[in-house]
């Protein structure tokens, strides 16, 4: 461990501050956003201080044993890729924390909000800094949990509740699949340490479990990054407060899947399966999001679809996996973070100050919200991929990275044209115009709400002119981490008149056409598709309904209130299992040529059998109880025949007591027949199971007696009984000396039975039956739940 | 220094004897009508003393010296003492929950605590049994006391029958178990696990079918107690019908002890059969049971609108996850199960403790609607319940996550990848039903009547459960390290 | 002599099994009694039969002479008999109490209505704009 580096401490400190956030908010009051922003700002500065070492190709690795027996460590690794992600998380986090202070000013749940937001940030840092699969998973699921509470924050709203649950189920469910993948990956690679796994990719790619690993891990990454067909949770999660949408749903959490794919691509990537899985998912996401965006007029949902387009692009580029594509992916990632977060915050400010997010209901806001408008325009131009902004640099690179895959390139161009439309709808339309249209009287947002977005947008502008600022220091090391080897590249704003520039021009032209024809297309699509459920959401619904139906079905089949029903299922199952075993290979040996018995022995045995059958058939309780007594005494006599006087005495005694107790209880029970009222088929089933069981045990007893007898332990007792324990009755010696504790145990059993029975009896006569019946069933009235949640 | 054999026997039996003695003391308290809270304190002192003995044994790490006496196989090795500690922890939590609720529920009889301590004694014996007769004794002591406790709630027809059914099915399960013991004895000529395992893997042994049938019946008998489907059918009714403090006790202590016994048998007797000619059959049967349990438990819980009943089904589901550890019992499964059961004890007791604070004065009213808006009304209760539920769902960074991770890993490394994946898939269903309760608590407004103030002992129980759940989740190494000491772990990892 | 004993074990087992699948709880308890008798005989038989030589050590010797009956299974049977006795006593008390309070000992009359599985509506926020 390089001396003095404490990346882990930074993460743990973030968790600590998150837990302290409620107290800080109470002390700092309205200024709490500014105070708490010191944490992400400090982390940003800390990360930047490592920039030069990372740029030199070094990775900072730390390992703290967590469950060392299982090779689970809190390993941290700061390399080029982690640094880019961590800077995004902390840097944008700073802007978001300040913004949230203004946006949620006076909200009484602000303490809880900051706790969750900062905990989310800490977990997100943990995800991108972990070098151990298991600790990565822990942080990964923590982001799902905290985002669940953050999305459901405005809980008076039914939509937020449902969206929160939907997001949780899709992402946490995908996460669990990922865990399965990680466990198999750990087994295959022999370690959970990511850096060790990446050092031997052939062992993983060549393993027969590779495809399973890829699909399971891919499921986790694709659900988290909202790729088609799991994309639906992201637009729905727009029910969250705007700071949450801006942070989780554009800049950070949804990028966790992208991060994981990029991180593992040296080990898992480079195969046809990888290429097709990621490029198809990415392209499908872009196209689906691009077309669904045409239906939207809510600014946040529009931005959500544009985020989906960007996520699809990133996943597709990782799938392509060439040095050009990966370099483009890294640059695009940063460019997207710099324009999307400000756009979300602007949309939130407009909602906050003008009272609506419907882009058709707002006009002319630029006159009263000039700073917000300028921010929106700068970020928007970057989002639309126009020079001289960083988004342009990123898009040019992405086009170049896809030259070898024209179909994918075409998809990206189409989706980018929709981006132009979205930018127009969010950053131009509500602000332009002379007359102000808005539900409430709009005014400029306060400093806390414009500073962050303005700085981020300005960052996009500066980097557009001077992309070399981060080129060699951040972008190249990050791409190297994904590629597994160094591929230097240079960033330029102006490439000259290249094919990529021509394609950019085509994109903008297409975008302008979309802007021009937007209203009629939009209205036509809306009127036709309103109420129509798009495929994957329908799939989610059908899955949920299917789970419930399956649950109801299996409960109906298995769960009954009738004891007899339980017994039949259980016995049937057990007899089936034992029968299965016994017939599996018929190697039960028999020897029927036993020593013959005496005449009177047979008579006793026949008597026992007859008594049992009589107990079975008896209608009168007296007959039944007498038969049971006869069977019991018969067994005692068998013990006498075969030299077990202790057993016989005990059996006589116990049998007598049982008959007396049963008779005493019967006196108090109503007189009535024991005759059964059940129908023939029920009796036939019971009879079949009973006869099968009886036959089985006859056979088994014979099989056991055919075995040679291992008498070593018995011989030990016989030999030791007198010398060691001074007892001549061996059974007694075993009971009171060698197994004295068991005898104590038997006494305890009787003590428990007696005190339990006594307690029951005492209570039993305390209350009459009538008291019970009045309350009967009243406790099981269920109120049908209101929808979902 | 070698200790005299008698001393070793006594020290191994220490926890069980202490519990028995304190059961008798509390019984005397009861006879002489001593104040009930004094009885509860005495019971807690007993549990604490027994825990000191068990902890002492665990720290000494007595491995082989555990077997003592002649026919007696009462074990004091690491798994036995670790399970003893878990049982004592569960008992202590159940006593704390009981103390808050007994008089309110009309359960205020003198025999209550003595029976609970006796049952815990039986559980300890069951977890430490090294032979089939001791197993049977422990099981019956534990079960008889629980039958009496479970049948106590009055006034509800449903709980009356549930208690009756529980007893009858349990008695029948004991019968199955004894048949299993008889067949196993017939095949191996021994009662102690080690001797049986040696006999079954001896070169000339040819009674595999018999031994296997004995094993199947043992599995069925214990399957009742651990609630593997389809032997779980008593559970939802009994858990719902019994008074909540008793349900707390049953769900943690009985389950821990039964799993301890099952794991022990699986790692010795079953494992020795696994090498035989029919060796593949037993894991297949166990696999069928576990798969069914995972599905039945999780999907059953999905439907429930009562939180108590949901927790009952989830207890079935957790039996399935623990079953994954049983499959790997002879390697890493036992340690995984110890950790899982520790976590399970804490979080389940915590959930039932909060539940008993929220139900009506007569212990009814567990509908999910009652939990609406709890976060606003009772932030402590809501946060506690949310934490233990997330832990039950297996979400990090709580103890339940580490437990699930350990059992999944044990199953995968033992080659049961498909079952582990089924376990993980059904975990997603589990997230649905646990998250629903949290959604009600945090994201809904309340229209319920106010909840009575939290009794001090209940608060202590909740705090212990929640702190334990978090601590075991964040720093699992302490407990796991203690348990793991002296055993070969995760070869190949 | 093992063959008739094995048959008796089987008959007792079958009768016990049939009875525990019946509706009347009294018959259920009778079934348990038969099962308990059957298993005692089973253990006794699989421990091997010895006629006429109880497991005693004669006063002049320190180990028993020749074959005596197998003492180990007998110890288990004693345990089983005692436990069975405890169970049956408890069962009868519980049965009595059930009748006192519920007025019946038939399983189907005991059954409270099952909590009907209740499908939980799971909705979502649609794709289509609200």
Q: Give the C-alpha Rg of chain A.
A: 38 Å
Residues in helix, % of chain A:
over 70%
Q: Which whole number gives the mean pLDDT of chain B?
A: 84
Which percent band covers the strand fraction of chain A? under 5%
Computed over alpha carbons, the radius of gyration of chain B is: 21 Å
Number of helices of chain A: 34
The poorly predicted ranges of chain A are 765-789
Rounded to the nearest angstrom, the distance between the terminal CA atoms of chain B is 37 Å
Class of secondary structure makeup of chain B: mainly alpha
**Beta strand % of chain B:** under 5%
**Count of individual beta strands of chain B:** 0
Percent in helix of chain B: over 70%
Mean pLDDT of chain A, nearest integer?
A: 80
Unreliable stretches of chain B, pLDDT < 50, 5 or more residues?
Answer: 64-70, 486-493
How is this structure best described in words?
The complex is a heterotrimer of chains A (789), B (493) and C (130). Chain A is mainly α and 789 residues long. Chain A has helices at 7-28, 32-36, 38-49, 51-55, 80-103, 110-129, 133-151, 158-189, 194-198, 201-205, 210-224, 233-236, 242-251, 255-268, 272-293, 299-320, 323-354, 370-383, 390-401, 406-428, 447-465, 468-483, 499-516, 518-529, 535-558, 563-584, 599-617, 621-641, 645-668, 680-705, 712-725, 730-738, 740-764, 769-775; strands at residues 60-67, 72-78. Chain B is mainly α and 493 residues long. Chain B has helices at 5-31, 36-60, 78-101, 112-128, 132-150, 157-188, 193-201, 208-226, 234-241, 244-274, 281-303, 307-327, 329-358, 374-377, 379-392, 399-413, 417-443, 456-474, 477-484. In chain B, helix 2 (36-60) runs antiparallel to helix 3 (78-101) and helix 3 (78-101) runs parallel beside helix 13. Chain C has a domain at 1-50 and 71-104: Helix Hairpins (Orthogonal Bundle). The model of chain C is unreliable at 111-130 (pLDDT under 50). Chains A and C meet through helix 8, helix 25, helix 26, helix 27 and helix 28 of A and helix 1, helix 2, helix 3 and helix 4 of C.
